[in-house]
Amino acid sequence: xxxxxxxxxxxxxxxxxxxxxxxxxxxxxxxxxxxxxxxxxxxxxxxxxxxxxxxxxxxxxxxxxxxxxxxxxxxxxxxxxxxxxxxxxxxxxxxxxxxxxxxxxxxxxxxxxxxxxxxxxxxxxxxxxxxxxxxxxxxxxxxxxxxxxxxxxxxxxxxxxxxxxxxxxxxxxxxxxxxxxxxxxxxxxxxxxxxxxxxxxxxxxxxxxxxxxxxxxxxxxxxx
Length: 224
Description:
alpha/beta, Rossmann fold, globular, P-loop_NTPase, DNA_Partitioning_ATPase
């Protein structure tokens, strides 16, 4: 089962924007998708509760009789949004679940500095070789020094820069309605969909073979 984890311990980098739109993309292709938070607060449920009934379905976690979170039956794709401050053992446990991981980054020297140690720890993570990891530039303004600095920063990292997402209110307006770029008439968000083309191609590429046996790498229920 594809499990896409959106992760960066730095807050405010756009993890939820990426998570909801990745889930929306999979749902638009006919997949049975679950979008969940790794933390117990389950803030993604707010977005899902605002999602129109006629939109492509995206499922939340199921909660069993013991109040444990479970992936609903029939789900084919999982997207996990992660909280700020996720690190150490908790981060490693989440990475064990992932077939792919997206790291959103903002074109700010302060954000790059704050994320530097995390990215190098991610590169050193001994099991990172069995998952595909990509970087995604967020709230980018073209032809700016800040974006050039971010591109230069990414060149020093062992992960591909998947693309760049522009700074637009489209994401804000759609999120308030429980929607994504992939739920509306393409002409309304044509420029944004074009930016997502290399990202969705990467999402559609087969993930690296998972290692290990039993519950673990590819079982999102294992973390709980």
